[in-house]
Amino acid sequence: MPSVLPLRAIALQILFLLIAIAIESSILYRQLKITPREGVQYAATLNLLSTVMGWIVIFIVLNTGVGGQIRRSLDVEIALISLVLFNQAVSVGSNVVGVLVLGALAAFPASFAVKQFGLVLLKWVLDPSLAEAKPLPQPEVRSVMRNPREVVRKEASSPVLAVFLANLLSYGAIVLVLLLLIFIQGGIAL
Fold first, then answer.
1. At what angle do helices 74-86 and 94-126 cross, to 10 degrees?
2. CA dist 109 to 54, 61, 72, 134, 157, Å?
3. Which of 112, 122, 121, 131 is nearest to 50 (CA)?
4. Which residue in 42, 80, 107, 114 is deepest, having the highest Cβ count within 10 Å?
5. Is there a contact between 32 and 25 (Cβ–Cβ < 8 Å)?
C-alpha cells in the first residue's frame, strides 16, 4: 500500500518558509529599524501565522473535518489535493485551472492581511505602547530640499509598507523557485 504522507509537500513548505523568513526578516529589520534578531523573530512569527491560516483555509475548502460543507466540484477538489499535497498536476478542464489560478492570486492579499494583522497583534503583545496610533509629524518643506533621502527613508519605515514589500519580495522568490521546480521536472518547455 503506498504511503499517503505528503513528504514532498512538507519539504517544500519548509523550504518556502525558510526563503520567506530570510527575505522578510532583512526587510523588516531595515524598514522597521529593529534589531536583526527581532527581524527574524517577527518574520518567523508572521510567516508561521500566515502558513497556519492558509492551511486552515485549504482544509475548510476541502472539507476535511475543519469546516462546514462548501459547494465545489469534484474536479476542483481532486486538482487541489493532488497539487497541494502531492505536487502533481492533474489534467483537468480550463474551469478548474481558472479556479486554482484565482485561488493562487487571492493568496497574496490574504497573506498580506494576515501578516499585517499579525504584526499589529505581535507589537501589542510585546509592548502595548508600540501598537498605539501616533500622529504623524507634519513634514517640513525645507527638509525635502536639504536631504530627500532622509524623507524617503522616514516614509519607508511605515509598518504597512514594510510588510507589503517583504510579502511581495518573498512571494516573488517563492514563485521563481516554483517555476524552477516546474522547469526541472519538465513541466514546461521554454
1. 60
2. 12, 18, 22, 26, 20
3. 112
4. 42
5. no
Sorted by where each begins, the domain ranges of the chain are 7-130+137-184
What letter represents residue 72's amino acid?
R
- The per-residue pLDDT for range 10-56, each reduced to its tens digit, is 888 899 999 999 999 999 999 988 999 999 999 999 999 999 998 88
- HEC letters along 6-61: CHHHHHHHHHHHHHHHHHHHHHHHHHHCCCHHHHHHHHHHHHHHHHHHHHHHHHHH
The grid cell for 186 is 519538465
C-alpha span between 45 and 118 (Å, rounded): 8
